[in-house]
Amino acid sequence: MGTYMSMLLILGAGVVVISLFYTWSIAKEQKKRTSNLDSSIPAEVKEHAYIRNPVFLTYIIVISIALLFIVYFAVTTARY
Fold first, then answer.
1. Using CA atoms, how far apart are residues 50 and 57, in angstroms rounded to an integer?
2. Separation between Cα atoms, residue 1 and residue 44, nearest integer Å
3. What is the pLDDT of residues 43-65, one digit of tens each?
4. How far is Cα 40 from Cα 32, in angstroms, rounded to an integer?
């Protein structure tokens, strides 16, 4: 893997980590707020607030796919 590819990988991973923490902090902030304009939240969502959040699910899916690609390319291009 070249130098530029390594730098791009590190930069991309940093953006993902920063975005994850930023999203997590916004989710916590939204949880603290209460408003009379919103409808009630279903009990299943209240019990699993982070698991049912589509943003977190997107992060998990994208990171999983990226790791699968990395492992696949590492295995297929490995020279023994």
1. 9
2. 45
3. 776 777 677 778 888 888 999 99
4. 15
In terms of pTM, does the model score above 0.70? Answer: no
What value does the mean pLDDT take over residues 66-70?
Answer: 92
Q: What is the dihedral of CA 15, 16, 21, 27, to 10 degrees?
A: 120
Phi, psi of 42 (to 5 degrees): -60, 150
Tell me the one-letter amino acid at 16: V
d(CA 58, CA 55): 5
The domain spans of the chain are 3-29+42-76
Q: Terminus-to-terminus CA distance in the chain, angstroms? A: 16
Instruction: Please report the pLDDT score of residue 65 as a whole number.
Output: 93
How far lies 74's CA from each of 71, 77, 80, in Å?
5, 5, 12
